[in-house]
UniProtKB/TrEMBL annotation:
GO terms for molecular function: 3-oxoacyl-[acyl-carrier-protein] synthase activity; beta-ketoacyl-acyl-carrier-protein synthase III activity. It is an enzyme of class 2 (transferase). Pathway: Lipid metabolism. Pfam families: ACP_syn_III (PF08545), ACP_syn_III_C (PF08541). It comes from the Bacteria. This is Beta-ketoacyl-ACP synthase III. Residues 81-157 form the Beta-ketoacyl-[acyl-carrier-protein] synthase III N-terminal domain. PANTHER family: 3-OXOACYL-[ACYL-CARRIER-PROTEIN] SYNTHASE, BETA-KETOACYL-[ACYL-CARRIER-PROTEIN] SYNTHASE III, CHLOROPLASTIC. It comes from Enterococcus lactis. InterPro entries: ACP_syn_III_C, ACP_syn_III_N, Thiolase-like. Residues 210-272 form the Beta-ketoacyl-[acyl-carrier-protein] synthase III C-terminal domain. Belongs to the thiolase-like superfamily. FabH family.
Length: 280
């Protein structure tokens, strides 16, 4: 496969374990998440108004993962669609869901799910040591007393080729141009690292201005990135929850998985007023 070691990986990324599917697709993982949330709240799937799935590793270009989940779950009244925004996907989907609730929807699911193992070139050490599979989600319900306190969304398309995956080559008989695109992950690691430390930290500082927070749940890409961001925004490391040591980088799934673990451990209490920052 490739020349590497556990020490090399963990010292540079903080990653010690990952999860990899054997016979499941992204829609299978997302359906499990949806079913678990419905069972926990004893809800009828027909009561859902929307199902949003954030993913960069769908089963197909179409149908969407969300549509497959909607059909298998029996959520006949829910609008369902995917959001493809890679590591920012869950944050974007959460923002979209909040707007839908403000426009009259009362209940819906936001799920982040990935099977990134199918996008990995297992001979490329720059990417093969980073990514894992997983899914997580939240059930949102309308509440006139609750809302997002602050929001800042941004996109930098000038860096769009710093991380690419899933290239679909045009194979129609009239297309003659050669392409260097790759189906597998290709990443300029230094660009990603610099962007995260500079731009993500600046966005956190802007959102936190005059607003103390309890915890920060950042996308779980690399422990060294999070450590640098913590120093830059001058906040104690313990406020930055992490779990990439167990799962690696799961892209759109990383934040909901981390949130679920924070709730299960008691750090975040549902129904209690706590201020939490999500960044993708």
């Amino acid at each position: 496969m490739m020349d590497t070691s556990d020490e090399w990986i963990s010292s540079r990324t903080g990653i010690r374990e990952r999860r990899c599917v054997t016979n499941q697709e992204t829609s299978d993982l997302c359906l499990l998440v949806a079913e678990k949330m419905m069972q926990q709240k004893n809800l009828n799937p027909k009561d859902l108004d929307f199902i949003l799935v954030a993913t960069m590793s769908p089963d197909y270009s179409t149908p969407s993962v969300a549509a497959q989940v909607q059909g298998k779950l029996g959520a006949a009244n829910a609008i369902a669609f995917d959001i493809s925004a890679a590591c920012s996907g869950f944050v974007y989907a959460l923002s979209m869901a909040e707007k839908m609730i403000r426009c009259g929807s009362t209940k819906g699911l936001v799920i982040g799910g990935e099977t990134l193992s199918k996008l990995i070139d297992w001979s490329d050490r720059t990417t093969a040591v980073l990514f894992g599979d997983g899914a997580g989600g939240v059930l949102l319900e309308a509440n006139p007393q609750k809302k997002l306190l602050k929001e800042k969304l941004a996109t930098d398309g000038t860096r769009s080729t710093s991380l690419t995956a899933g290239y679909l080559q045009n194979k129609n008989p009239f297309y003659s141009e050669d392409s260097e695109g790759s189906y597998y992950f290709r990443m300029t690691g230094r660009d990603i690292f610099d962007f995260a430390v500079r731009d993500v930290a600046n966005n956190i500082q802007e959102v936190m201005k005059d607003t103390p927070v309890d915890y920060l749940l950042l996308h779980q890409a690399n422990l060294r990135i999070i450590e640098k961001i913590a120093r830059k925004v001058k906040m104690p490391q313990e406020k930055f929850l992490t779990n990439m040591d167990k799962y690696g980088n799961t892209s759109a799934a990383s934040i909901p998985i981390l949130l679920d673990e924070a709730v299960s451990s008691g750090k975040i209490t549902l129904g209690k007023q706590q201020k939490v920052i999500f960044t993708g």
